[in-house]
Amino acid sequence: MSSTRAIYLDSHATTPLDPRVFEEMKPWFVERFGNPSSKLHPYGWEALSGVELARRKLGASLFAPADGVLFTASATEANHLVLLGLLPELKRRNRTKIISIAIEHASVLGALDEAKAQGAEVILVPVDSAGRVNLNALGQILDSTVGLVSIAWANHEVGTLQPMREIVELSRARGVLVHSDAVQAFGKVPVEMNLPGSPDFLTLSAHKVYGPKGAGSVVARDAATLKLLTPQVRGGSQEFGLRAGTHNVPAIVGFAAAAEFALQDLSRHSAQMSSLRDQLWNDLQQNLQGAVRRNGCVECSLPHSLNVSFLGIDGAALFSRTRGIAVSNASACLNGKQDYSQVLVELGATEAASRASMRIALSPWTTPEEITQAGKIIVQAVKELLHFEMSLNTQGVRP
């Protein structure tokens, strides 16, 4: 990495593109440029074959049938398609309650707000201080009026993994559909659709699994489950008539390739990233002792994820001193709305504490040298700020 570039540790926001994926995509920009909906000539046939092969590949990566895989332009669109596209079916079943949790991604919470405006009742069940859903509370709420449970497989800020099998088993026993935003989990931990404890719907995103931006997916348990959805983007017959619009063929091809490569490398990359993540956490603990706290679930976290809060310092000052590393303190989708992590506030942190927090996420290309350097940058910045705060208090500037 060039010395003028910051060390990239923000893979929750987006991941680097796997160079192998780029090679798979290149022909579809120039040589195979056809529109898959052009059915009367070879250019269209070729493009359509690329989309359908990608559909089969992505389905195979999840042990899901190809006719349960629907492509969108983003995970945000996919979340809206499931949460709003299911509403007519839920109303038909007289099951218009939707259960979720307050630490979901903004795209889910936004879709839930719209679902409420369209007549659904949304219930947010509690999570513990690490972000894990309270299964007892979930079980008590589930009844014949609940139609859908939507809980992310892994949190997008603290990396906490949910007990998905238990969530699905509780819900399915009461005839309730389950959707999970698996954007952060897929490619980092095993995510499969062929097990009894698998959700009915998944949301995925290519650019969170070392693929390109501009491709998302809804993956359903089977074709019949996918057909429960009502289209939210109309005007064309693409994607089983459920999502109108010309396919982004290069991104779709890249999505499937990224999924294949990520699954092939999953065990090796997960072990590699978790080892470096633990190295960074140990460096911070040893050098900052009581001034750093880890957020989320230590035992049930994504292997590449580390979320930490630094106690007694100003968040803005912290980030101004750590420009040598590319990290964030909250979801990229909140940019411009607020400067603190709503997830950490929901888990019990103050707004001030959440501003002095770092959301760190590694990639398979993160090196040991970069982790060592990142630790030094953070430790130096925190120690300087702690010394500064102590000086202010000693001089009586602070109350």
Topology:
Elements: E1 7-8, H1 19-25, H2 27-30, H3 42-61, E2 69-72, H4 75-85, H5 87-92, E3 97-100, H6 106-117, E4 121-124, H7 135-141, E5 146-150, H8 164-172, E6 177-181, E7 201-205, E8 216-220, H9 223-226, H10 249-264, H11 266-288, E9 292-295, E10 305-310, H12 315-320, E11 325-326, H13 342-346, H14 351-355, E12 357-361, H15 368-394
Parallel strand pairs: 1-11, 3-4, 3-5, 5-6, 6-7
Antiparallel strand pairs: 2-8, 7-8, 9-10, 10-12
Helix pairs in contact: 1-10, 3-10, 4-6, 11-15
Low-confidence stretches: none
Strand content: 5-15%
Pairing-aware structural class of the strands and helices?
alpha/beta
The whole-number mean of residue pLDDT values reads 94
Number of helices: 15
> How would a crystallographer describe the biggest sheet?
7 strands, mixed
What is the element string, with H for helices and E for strands? EHHHEHHEHEHEHEEEHHHEEHEHHEH
**What would the CATH topology of the largest domain be?**
Aspartate Aminotransferase, domain 2
Instruction: State the helicity in percent bands.
Output: 40-55%
**CATH architecture call of the largest domain:** 3-Layer(aba) Sandwich
Distance from first to last alpha carbon? 45 Å
Shape: globular
Number of strands: 12
